[in-house]
Design brief:
- This is Class I SAM-dependent methyltransferase.
- One of its GO terms (biological process) is methylation.
- Belongs to the methyltransferase superfamily.
- It is a single chain.
- Helix content is about 35%, strand content about 20%.
- By secondary structure, the chain is an alpha/beta fold.
- Helix 3 crosses helix 4 and helix 7 crosses helix 9.
- The longest helix is centred in the middle third of the chain and has 15 residues.
- It is globular and about 55 Å long.
- About 40% of the residues are buried.
Length: about 270
């Protein structure tokens, strides 16, 4: 049965199918130079068979294909995102399924690695997801997930501080309903969810995605970083944009660019079976 959170995510991403990949591919990991997709793909190399949960428009799968993975698959709630994924030449042979991570349409022991980028933390009933991941993974198979971190830097926290009062103004029937699950956003909670399915304690790697750019570019990326921004009406967005550009003017560098960072965490483990 589809929950309200799943319905919200499906509808949002059907309308904005490339929003997440544009956000992630606009930035580079601070001090590293790779995108967050590339960091995650490199953590499961040299896995030959890889499944992406919440694969979106296939951006991460395309990176995995370029890294040499031979068998690729993805599952997502959004048919709009999957339509874009199917247009990627690198994914011509990938198995892309419209569905839920709680009910995977794959055989037991069929993947060397399962990955999820900013999606595992949004999934209902994560124990069911963990059980399905364990079922489709081979023994000592890897699971790696990037989840949202608790902090951000530069202009990003300014955006959120200004936006929160506006989010509270949104009528209840229009508010963003995208997850009731909080455990899968922190290390202890992820271990709590994964351990009963047979996984080792996760390793934990925080890093920052640098989104520094022209002020208008940063404004757009900040908007795409938070689902609740989509619930604001035109007048609220105009107020928020005006306040954001004014409140962040002092942060701009000498060449007029605006520093901004999105902090995330990478959890990685293996299946002990």
């Amino acid at each position: 049965m589809t929950s309200a959170a799943e319905s919200y995510l499906r509808e949002y991403h059907d309308r904005k199918p490339d929003a997440m990949s544009v956000l992630i591919e606009s930035g580079r990991v601070t001090g590293d130079g790779r995108t967050s997709y590339e960091v995650l793909a490199d953590r499961v190399a040299p896995a030959r068979r890889v499944l992406d949960l919440g694969c979106g428009d296939g951006a991460l799968l395309a990176v995995l294909a370029r890294r040499g993975a031979e068998k690729l698959a993805g599952v997502d709630l959004s048919s709009g995102q999957l339509d874009l994924a199917r247009q990627r030449p690198e994914l011509a042979g990938a198995e892309l399924h419209h569905g839920r991570a709680q009910e995977l349409p794959f055989e037991d022991d069929s993947y060397d690695a399962v990955v999820s980028h900013m999606a595992f933390m949004l999934m209902d009933n994560p124990e069911a997801v963990a059980a399905e991941i364990a079922r489709v993974l081979v023994a000592r198979g890897a699971f790696a997930a990037v989840v949202g971190g608790p902090e951000s830097t530069g202009a990003t926290p300014v955006f959120l501080e200004l936006a929160r009062p506006l989010f509270r103004e949104v009528p209840e029937e229009r508010q963003a309903t995208y997850t009731a699950e909080r455990r899968t956003s922190n290390r202890e909670g992820i271990d709590e969810v994964l351990a009963p399915a047979g996984f080792a304690p996760v390793s934990w790697e925080p890093y920052e995605i640098d989104l520094t750019g022209e002020p208008e570019e940063v404004w757009t990326l900040c908007c795409e970083s938070y689902y609740s921004t989509d619930t604001l009406d035109d007048a609220q967005l105009a107020r928020l944009r005006s306040a954001f550009l004014a409140e962040t003017e002092h942060l701009r560098t000498a060449d007029g660019r605006l520093p901004a960072g999105l902090c995330v965490d990478l959890a990685q483990t293996e299946l002990l079976k």
